[in-house]
Amino acid sequence: MQNGYIESFNGKFRDECLNEHWFEDLAHARRLISEWRVDYNEQRPHSSLDYQTPLEFASAFRRQITESTTNDITRSRLD
């Protein structure tokens, strides 16, 4: 076990997606995996992100960076 985060993701992916479906062909596999990925990244809260979805976490992080940058620019103009 080299990377616990990757191992955890791989286990969830296998248990919740790969083991749950019988793929008819490559197009079917791609569609179901894409649906699972969207659910995992945009719908499902993650405990490691304080029960936010990755999408919510990324949006909050971008807002924080933007606000920080705006505050830095405002402070430098006042100096």
From TrEMBL:
GO biological processes: DNA integration
Pfam families in alphabetical order: rve_3
Official protein name in the record: Putative transposase
GO molecular function: nucleic acid binding
Residues spanning the signal sequence: none
PANTHER family: BLR2054 PROTEIN (PTHR47515:SF1), LOW CALCIUM RESPONSE LOCUS PROTEIN T (PTHR47515)
Superkingdom in the source lineage: Bacteria
Domain Integrase catalytic stretches: 1-54
